[in-house]
Structure formats: structure tokens, C-alpha cells
Amino acid sequence: MSTSKPWKIHSTREVLHTPIFRVHLDSSECPRTGIRGNFYKFKFGNWVNIVAMTSGDEMIMIRQFRHGSSKSELEIPGGLIDSADADPVSAGQRELLEETGYMGGNAKIIGSVCPNPALQDNICYTVFVDNAVRVSEPAMDDCEDIETLLVPAKKVRRLIRDGKIRHGLVLNALMFYFL
Predict the structure, then answer these.
(1) For residue 122, what are the contacts with CB-CB under 8 A and spacing of at least 6?
(2) 14: number of CA atoms within 13 Å, CB side?
(3) For residue 141, what pLDDT is reported?
(4) What whole-number distance in Å separates Cα of residue 134 and Cα of residue 149?
(5) C-alpha distance across the termini of the chain, in Å
(6) What is the pLDDT of the chain when averaged over all its residues?
(7) Are residues 129 and 162 in contact, defined by beta-carbon separation less than 8 angstroms?
(8) pLDDT for 1
């Protein structure tokens, strides 16, 4: 039976540095066997997803092309928590405004997940915002092309069941909302 003790890390070195993430190679020792192995770790910043609802019970969703799937994906607003953000809640409010032009009230964290603890070291927070209203045009980055959609909340479950929403972290965020 495993004792779930921490692994001893003998060395760490960065093997790749990109504007989005870094890759480290750790030489670590298994506490159960004493055998060393090499393990890659992707170092990302923390992320935030936003479940934003209008007063008419519509969820603010977005559609954007994703290079990983080579498809336009139906999602909720989200992005990287910047160093200028005070916390995940303020990052969520900023991302919502930038991507959709909407703002709302009563913003709060309703959940968080480790996107892939086998390889990554970051956290993805889910922020809920209610009574969202459009206050401006979106302020997208130069390489963003985002369509904003208002989807009745009762239709979102069907979109999940029908496989129309496929992004794993978005599905996690919606799970927190529906719970």
C-alpha cells in the first residue's frame, strides 16, 4: 500500500520557455521504491473562467477558434490571471469586459480545479457574475476573434448533453454553476 509521501526532487531545470508557458524537467525520487525518474512539468499562470448571467437568465457565452482543436468552440469567457489583477475575481471581471463588453455584480469564486495535475502546476478558478449588462464594445487582443452569445440558462444543459460544449475547463465551470 502506498504511503503518499512527498517525492524528493533532486534537480529541476527549465528546458523550454515560451510566452505562454515554461517546461521544467525534474529528477525526482519515488518515496516507495527510491528509484529516480525524470518528469516534465508545464508551468502556466493561473486561469479564470467566468459564468456570467444577465437579469433575463441568459448565460454570456463566446465562440472562438481554438488552434488545439482546429475548430470554433462554444465556451464561456476566460483567460490568464495577469500580474496586475488583484485576485481571481478582479481578473474574471476584467476578462468578461475585455472579451464581451459586459459587466455585472456580486462577483465571487464558485470553484477551482487543477487543470491537469499530472503535468501542470496551475489553478483555474470559476467566477460567477450576475445581472451582467453590456457596457462597451469588447476590447479583444490583436489575435482574438470572439463572438458573444446570450444563451438561455435552460438551454445550456442541452448544449452540454449534445456535445456542443467540449472544453473541459468550461464544463468544470458549468458544473460548479449547476451545483
Answers:
(1) 43, 44, 45, 46, 47, 114, 115
(2) 6
(3) 87
(4) 12
(5) 34
(6) 96
(7) no
(8) 56
String of b and e for 107-134 (b: at least 16 CB within 10 Å)?
beeebbbebeeeeebbbbbbbbbeebee
Distance CA 30, CA 17 (A): 27
pLDDT in tens, 4-62: 889 999 999 999 999 999 999 999 999 999 999 999 999 999 999 999 999 999 999 99
For 109-143, write each residue's pLDDT tens digit.
999 999 999 999 999 999 999 999 999 999 988 88
Nine-digit cell string for 149: 452569445
Q: How far apart are CA 50 and CA 91, in angstroms?
A: 9
3-state secondary structure the chain: CCCCCCCEEEEEEEEEECCCCEEEEEEEECCCCCCEEEEEEEECCCEEEEEEECCCCEEEEEEEEECCCCEEEEECCEEECCCCCCCHHHHHHHHHHHHHCEEEEEEEEEEEECCCCCCECCCEEEEEEEEEEECCCCCCCCCCCCEEEEEEHHHHHHHHHCCCCCCHHHHHHHHHHHC
Report pLDDT for 3: 63
